[in-house]
Amino acid sequence: MYNFIKFENRNARQESRITITKSHSFGFPTKFSSDNGIKKFKYVILFYDKDSESIGIQFTNDETDSNKFSIIKYEKYGASVVARSFFKTNNINLEKHHGKYKWKVVEIENIGKLFVIELGNKKLENK
Length: 127
Description:
Blueprint: E1 18-20, E2 25-28, H1 30-35, E3 43-49, E4 54-60, E5 69-70, E6 72-73, E7 79-82, H2 84-89, H3 94-97, E8 99-101, E9 104-108, E10 112-118
């Protein structure tokens, strides 16, 4: 007998990537959010390594960190974070660096698990 499952992800972004937008935001498409359990978190804490031009993103529910950014969750389209102050403070040129990025998970001593994107190593074309 058949065991059909209804397809319910029409128009969902099926890419496991992190996006930087020109509007000072990080985008976490549906697949990335689902694969990494992003919906269970409320905030991100952001880190920047100027030498390597890398951004570290830590997902957290820590209410006490005063430098956290709230995650905006969408029912069908993953999640995003508006981080205008982060981009401006670190002089990150969004005209140059907006787009889609592959990411890696790195465990940093005294910080923990970070999702890292390297601004100088954009691997996906803007489409």
